[in-house]
């Protein structure tokens, strides 16, 4: 794995807290920083969360309408099949 060096500046207190956290968890400071930044980068932004919540609401509102539409389609297909069967029986094509 090829690596790159990243340097950032922080306060002495923050550096001490970072060192202590890494030591308590048996990890290097570099590992802790890599994990923290990976998690941070992977989190949705507030705008994305708002958009996602709006989409979820739209989907939740649409699903009952879709189910009702599918039920109507099934009923129409069943009625059509019955009429076709009756027609075919009346004409002697089907017994």
Please write out the topology:
Layout: H1 12-24, H2 29-42, H3 46-90
Question: What oligomeric assembly is this protein in?
Answer: single chain
Helix content: over 70%
Shape: rod-shaped
Question: SSE order in H/E notation?
Answer: HHH
Total number of strands: 0
First-last Cα distance: 73 Å
The helix tally amounts to 3
Question: Which structural category do the helix and sheet elements fall into?
Answer: mainly alpha
> How large, in whole angstroms, is the Cα Rg?
31 Å
Poorly predicted ranges (pLDDT <50, ≥5 residues)?
A: none
Tell me what the structure shows.
The chain is mainly α and 95 residues long. 76% of the residues lie in helices and 0% in strands. The protein starts with 11 loop residues before the first helix and ends in a 5-residue tail after the last helix. The mean pLDDT is 93.
Give a short summary of the structure:
The chain has helices at residues 12-24, 29-42, 46-90. By secondary structure, the protein is mainly alpha-helical.
């Amino acid at each position: 794995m090829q690596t790159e060096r990243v340097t950032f500046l922080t306060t002495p207190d923050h550096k001490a807290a970072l060192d202590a956290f890494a030591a308590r968890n048996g990890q290097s400071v570099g590992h802790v920083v890599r994990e923290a930044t990976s998690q941070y980068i992977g989190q949705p932004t507030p705008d994305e969360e708002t958009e996602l919540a709006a989409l979820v609401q739209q989907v939740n509102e649409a699903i009952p309408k879709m189910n009702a539409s599918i039920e109507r389609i099934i009923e129409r297909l069943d009625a059509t099949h019955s009429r076709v069967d009756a027609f075919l029986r009346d004409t002697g094509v089907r017994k």
